[in-house]
Design goal:
The protein has 208 residues and is α/β, with parallel strands linked by helices. Helix content is 33%, strand content 24%. Strand 1 and strand 2 form a beta hairpin. The longest helix is centred in the last third of the chain and has 19 residues. It starts with a strand and ends with a helix.
Length: 208
Amino acid sequence: MTGAAIELDTPHGTARAHLHGAGEPRAALLLGHGAGGGVAAPDLLAATEAALAQQVSVALVEQPYRVAGRRSAAPAHQLDTTWTAVAEQLRDGPLAGLPLLAGGRSAGARVACRTAGAVGAIGVLCLAFPLHPPARAGAERKTRLPELEAAGVPVLVVQGQNDRFGIPPAGPDREVVVIRGDHGLKSDKPALVAAVSAWLSELSGRSG
């Protein structure tokens, strides 16, 4: 799956957005990649496919560190600032006039949750949200649940049943769909596509 790529200046370097336009777009979905991966991750492509079928245009966003060829993720505040800058430019440009949804896989999902209010997102799609950060044996297991709860808009979490980072609980305005597979979400594309399609359809009904 390919799309037109545009480069965008941000406070922390050049980001890149791969645009996939729906035929008659009624919304736009920005998707970010995981910490060490890229926008060609199978779950991101499956979500893109689902969104396009629902007439939702998609921008797959590469953070500047990935555009520069680095695999080590930038600090959280830089990721968030970059994401906000990219969203603003896309809303003023190729995605102008469209309601905005945000999302991503793993670390990209965390960014989308943290910045939902700043970018004016009407919903957040989390693919393989890393609920528990890695911990040393015997150490208390921390949680990133507050990030999910702070999104402030409807959230869909699609999680593999064997995800080593845990499975977030459902909550008010937060749907959690558990499918076959692990953190990579590569094992059950049909289930992933179905979950994203149903959520987008329901969300458009609420906002419409």
